[in-house]
Amino acid sequence: MRRAFAVLLALVTGVSLMTVSAPAAQAAGSCSGTITYSGVQSSGLGELVIYYNSSNGGTNSACFYHRGAAYGRSAPTFVQIYRCALPKNEGAHCTPSGARPTDSGDFSYYAGPVAVTGVANYCVEAAGYIGWAGERHWIYSRQQGC
């Protein structure tokens, strides 16, 4: 009886830890919806994609995908998205307003999703990189979705 209880307790503890340790950025959005921006790095190793849906006063999500030689290979990967302070200036860099959700780690396929809400009538900007051969290969969307 004690052995069965110990096994059950270990299972419950393990499941609880897995639930608590889920990254918050994963719950904020999804890598799906209407694509408002897609850019592939000049190195061909990564692609930054911004998605939009109309929920929560407008929600933009971003994911950074591994491409080419990096696809399926674990590498440091990062993605970030934020709402711009000024409503319209598509194509320029912006001053962030509010939260800047990020996701980073050693991933094999993509980082994200990260999301911001309440973006109706505002631009967003996203950035991402993949670490490859000792270099960070960055891409910036500049202001999109204005």
From TrEMBL:
Signal sequence residues: 1-24
PROSITE patterns registered for this protein in UniProt: PROKAR_LIPOPROTEIN
Keywords assigned by UniProt, alphabetized: Signal
Superkingdom as given in the UniProt entry: Bacteria
Protein name, per record: Spore-associated protein A
